[in-house]
Structure formats: structure tokens, C-alpha cells
Amino acid sequence: MDTLIVTGPICSGKSTYIAARVKETDSDALVLELDKIGHEILGELYGEVDRAALADIVFEDPAELAKLEAELHPRILARAHERAIAFAGAHPNGYVIVEAALPLPACNMPEIAQWLATAKTHVCEASYEERLTRALARGMTQHDFERRNRVQAARQ
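Predicted structure:
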């Protein structure tokens, strides 16, 4: 299955790039937003979650962030892979686009690791000022942008 991973820091233009990519082709496409899948799984595991309160914890404490990611990332990748496989079965000439804020972590599930290893990757980039402007226009506070940016920058 043809797969493109689109990654880049917060507000770097990933969604815009993906929309243009989908529009320019006449093939069927499935866009998997890993952040949304993560929210689904978080809700399934813990019910209603105050995401702002959770962000206050994990973006200020690297150990808490690592614990959350260790719990969620394998599940997110497995769910994305399941959806990609189902899509590929129904659309053999289609392609899958995976939107991820961070480079995807190593995966110890062989089938998923192989899928990710054969995918192409596109990294979106934008200046700090442009990304901050976009974040503020979307209603994010500068404080929230700064702490997400700090965590993501450490991992790019």
C-alpha cells in the first residue's frame, strides 16, 4: 500500500500540504491524523479527559509525557495500521497519508514497522514566527504554543 507520512512541528502546514496533495491526484486517499486517533484511544481508555489539564501535566513533566506516549503510541500505530489495511483492501489503487506532529517512533510490531519503513516521508517546515501566527489565529495561547513547540523541537 502506498503510504506518505507527513510530519513537521506544530502549525507548520501539514494539513494544508495534505489537502493540496489529495486534491492534485485522482486516486482515493485515506488521511490518518494520528493526533485524532490518539484522542479516540485516550477517551476509550479513560473516558472523558480534560485535555487542557492533561497538557498542563505532560508538557511540563517529561516523565509523565514519556509514560503517556508509551501507553498510547503503540495503540495509535496499531489503529492507524488497521484502518490503512482496511482501506487498501477496499481501494487497491488508493494511497494512505499519515499526519504526525513528530517523527514516528520505532515500532516493535513487525508488520507495522515494515509498513512505516516502506512509506515515503514529507517534512513540512515554516518559520517560528509564521507558526506562532497560525497558532494564535486558531485560538491557541502563546503559552500553549510555546510549550508544545519546546517539546516537539527537542524531538525533531
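Summary: The mean pLDDT is 91.
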